[in-house]
From TrEMBL, chain A:
InterPro entries reported for this sequence: FTHF_cligase-like_sf, LUD_dom, NagB/RpiA_transferase-like
Residue runs in coiled coils: none
Record-annotated LUD domain positions: 47-211
Protein name, UniProt field: L-lactate dehydrogenase complex protein LldG
Signal sequence annotation: none
A Pfam family hit: LUD_dom
The organism of origin for this protein: Streptomyces zhaozhouensis
Source domain of life: Bacteria
TrEMBL record, chain B:
Domain 4Fe-4S ferredoxin-type per the UniProt entry, residue ranges: 316-385
PANTHER family xrefs: LACTATE UTILIZATION PROTEIN B (PTHR47153)
Organism for this UniProt entry: Streptomyces zhaozhouensis
LUD domain span: 72-288
UniProt name for this protein: L-lactate dehydrogenase complex protein LldF
Length: 213, 494
């Protein structure tokens, strides 16, 4: 008997007390919790919660955005920036030409990305109550590694369209078949005396731009 | 450098006796657990529907467990359809054998690991080392444990028993043996220690061809795996290597995508007291050009079906490994994690370990007693595991013996040795209470001879009186006092 049959056989014997006709799909599950905690100002709460976990939050109009992105890269002294294939070109319009644009290519090694300073992306959805941005590897976000290896991530959230109140609402907007990365502030750890410090392996600086269209 | 082992550890009381005398350990644990306790309470208080979320979390887990076979089959089909390969392991030896074979097939001799309770439980790193494969732990606390040739002592923060100065010393002394040495003049500031870990592990992430992880959740409906983390080491291990091997206990499955909405609210607040942890990765099989091109899922039983067979004890399988119960436990705070002798310390370990391994060792038989039954663990548990209820159930099994499932077979557990005196005393007490005349005579004799009362009990009772004061015997019993002052009828005061 192979291990699969052994394990499944043990499970079935262990559940001898469960009536055979019991069908979990037919029994509704009691979900008494809230679908949203109804924040009065979801975008404001998103900004507040992101900042609480040490993300740097900026608000911008479409006209201001190119200047803001250029300034954020300059503040960091970025000499190179990864650009996802579907990023709106105007977002980087004011970034000086000396700043090297690195396309997101499947052949790129992690080692090569390690030499890049910053990355600019959009996002799939942002969750106000938890201060989270979610990436789903869409065209304006690129493969997962490009938002991981560079030390500086600029993430643009279109508000209010991309903002939801809560985790349940966020999950409904996402496609589980896509690779997803939920980001709530820059990388951090609580491993030293259970106290939170920011800055371990992921980008140590996270700029979130709330773009008001 | 295989690290320590839990094998052959002494029973909880002996290990705890040593730990409670270690003042530095006590101070480290008190500081850390109190820090997180208050923060957790605040994070939970932010959600007015916490009680409903908790009830839903328990209900989803119970539903899954009651139909675990069909959800596992569904998961297997979904993962396979998405391009993953599913393997099954009945015990630790099988799981380690599968993972070792998968790693060796890649031709690689080094792997990077995401912190995983399951692989800790299985002793995977030691098994890999025997096959000539070096496993690098990449979680900061696991790194501290690995470099220090130590054992984890907490579910979330395996190096909780170390303070910042000890961590600095371990990094300075040992990092060079495993790769890039610690920077010159490393301070004990947590930010500097985190930076040292970043530099040390960077090269390993960039070169890694094989990653090994666990998973917090697996969605049966979609085949999606979920890993919740903080540092980014998880993302590195899950996305940069060409081959990813996830080793996951069978109880980690949840039925639907929607069910994640409950656990992604319960887990971070209970665990690190955050609204959300910094990074959560979700992947379904493999994706073209993004992340590992080969994905293996190893589903592990290793005692979980034995636990499932007990209708009271099975609730332990709801556990989502948040560690809130450790952080509030007065026994854990004083005894530390190592005394529990397994990868799962604290209250949850006291009910999980004896069920996963069976109560046939002295250590495992002592674990159900590693509690004052105060119930704080139950109150904070985000999936409402009634830990005291299961503890009492397991104590009954230790003392009385009885039916249990061990490695898939029904067996009769014999009463543990050392409880014979307790059983004899209880039998004697029952007889005496059933015979009022004898009880009265006995109480009279005891009252008259009370000056001769020993401070310590002789024989098997010595173990009881060693850590307790004997209650002083009163000159007369309540019943005789009542009769003397209120008369035979007992109707005084009318």
């Amino acid at each position: 008997m192979n291990a699969r049959e052994v394990v499944l056989g043990r499970v079935r014997r262990a559940l001898a007390d469960v009536p055979r006709e019991e069908d979990p799909e037919r029994e509704p599950l009691e979900r008494g919790y809230l679908d949203s905690h109804q924040p009065a100002d979801a975008v404001g709460l998103l900004a507040e919660n992101l900042a609480d976990y040490r993300a740097l939050v900026h608000r911008s109009t479409p006209e201001e955005l190119p200047g803001l992105v250029a300034r954020l890269l300059a503040e960091r002294g970025a000499a190179s920036v990864v650009v996802p294939a579907g990023l709106p070109p105007e977002w980087l319009a004011e970034v000086p030409r000396e700043v090297r644009r690195v396309p997101d290519e499947a052949a790129d090694t992690a080692r090569r990305l390690d030499g890049v300073d910053s990355v600019v992306t959009g996002c799939a959805v942002a969750i106000a109550e938890t201060g989270t941005v979610v990436l789903d590897a869409g065209p304006d976000q690129g493969r997962r590694r490009i938002t991981l290896v560079p030390d500086h991530h600029v993430c643009v959230v279109v508000v209010p369209d991309q903002v939801v109140d809560s985790v349940p609402q966020g999950l409904r907007r996402l496609d589980p078949a896509r690779p997803l990365t939920w980001i709530s502030g820059p990388s951090a750890t609580s491993d030293i005396e259970l106290d939170r410090v920011e800055g371990v392996h992921g980008p140590r600086r996270l700029d979130v731009v709330l773009l008001e269209e | 450098m295989s690290g320590g082992t839990y094998l052959g550890m002494p029973a909880f009381p002996r290990a705890a006796e040593a730990a409670t005398r270690d003042e530095r350990l006590r101070a480290n644990l008190t500081h850390a657990t109190h820090t997180i306790r208050d923060k957790r309470a605040r994070a939970v208080a932010e959600l007015p529907d916490w009680a409903e979320l908790r009830a839903a979390g328990a209900a989803i887990k119970d539903r899954t467990l009651r139909h675990l076979d069909s959800y596992l089959e569904r998961l297997e089909a979904a993962v396979t359809a998405a391009g993953g390969q599913v393997h099954w392991a009945a015990d630790a030896a099988q799981a380690n054998e599968i993972v070792t074979r998968l790693v060796l097939q890649t031709g690689e001799r080094e792997v990077v690991k995401v912190k995983s309770m399951a692989t800790q439980e299985l002793g995977l790193n030691a098994a890999l080392e025997r096959a000539g494969v070096r496993a690098f732990e990449t979680d900061l606390a696991e790194l501290i444990v690995q470099l220090g040739d130590d054992l984890p002592s907490h579910i979330l923060v395996p190096a909780i028993h170390r303070n910042r100065r000890e961590i600095r010393d371990i990094f300075t002394e040992r990092m060079g043996e495993w790769g890039r040495p610690a920077p010159e003049g490393l301070t004990d500031e947590p930010a500097d220690l985190a930076e040292a870990a970043r530099l040390h592990l960077r090269q390993k992430f960039l070169d890694a061809k094989v990653g090994i992880s666990g998973a917090n959740f697996m969605v049966a409906e979609t085949g999606t795996m979920v890993v919740v983390e903080s540092e980014g080491n998880g993302r590195m291990c899950l996305t940069l290597p060409e081959t990813l091997i996830s080793v996951v206990g069978i109880e980690k499955v949840v039925p639907t995508w929607r069910d994640l909405e409950v656990f992604l609210q319960l887990l971070p607040r209970s665990s690190t007291a955050e609204r959300m942890n910094p990074y959560t990765s979700m992947w379904t099989g493999t994706s073209d050009g993004d992340g590992p091109s080969t994905f293996h899922l190893v589903l592990v039983d290793n005692g979980r079906t034995d636990t499932l067979a007990d209708e009271v004890g099975r609730q332990a399988l709801r556990c989502i490994r948040c560690s809130a119960c450790l952080n509030v436990c007065p026994v854990y705070e004083r005894a530390g994690g190592h005394a529990y002798g397994s990868a799962y310390p604290g209250p949850i370990g006291a009910i999980l370990t004896p069920q996963l391994r069976g109560v046939d060792t002295v250590l495992d038989a002592s674990l159900p007693y590693a509690s004052s039954l105060c119930g704080a663990c139950y109150e904070v548990c985000p999936v409402a595991i009634d830990i005291p209820e299961v503890l009492v159930r397991l104590r009954e099994r230790v003392v009385e013996g009885g039916e249990a499932t061990v490695r898939g077979s029904r067996v009769r557990i014999r009463p543990a040795r050392g409880h014979a005196a307790e059983r004899a005393a209880m039998r004697a007490a029952r007889w005496a209470l059933d015979h009022p005349g004898a009880l009265r005579a006995g109480q009279r004799v005891a009252g008259r001879m009370r000056r001769l009362q020993p401070r310590r009990l002789p024989g098997p009772g010595a173990a009881w009186s060693r850590t307790r004061d004997m209650p002083p015997l009163p000159p007369e019993s309540f019943r005789s006092w009542w009769r003397r002052t209120r008369g035979e009828s007992g109707e005084a005061g009318r």
